[in-house]
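Q&A log
Question type: sequence-to-structure
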Amino acid sequence: QVQLVESGGGLVQAGGSLRLSCAASGRTFRPYGVGWFRQAPGKEREWVAAITWYGESTWHADSVKGRFTISKDNAKNTLYLQMNSLKPEDTAVYYCAASSRGTYLHLEQNYDSWGQGTQVTVSS
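Response status: OK
Response body:
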């Protein structure tokens, strides 16, 4: 069974940066892709970014493009999200997720495993 544990969240001022990490464990951790989602209070969970696990293809939501960067370290089974130029509207619980399916990594239903989430709060 795959376990995903996020870390790196916290409180930051607008314009600041944070780097989220997601450590994966489990003998069967061989996803097709991994991604980050976020959920703000009173809103639905939305996709943020995704990356193929055995390749280098990446995708970012328009709302974060140019500010956030997804990356991974296969040797460490760790996923990252570098977040720069943070805005108050980036405040949310951020979740990492792993997908065994080979398509549409921006869709929540294509992910099999989820972390518990880490809170990111951006003050104005």
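Response note: The CA atoms of residues 68 and 77 lie 20 Å apart.
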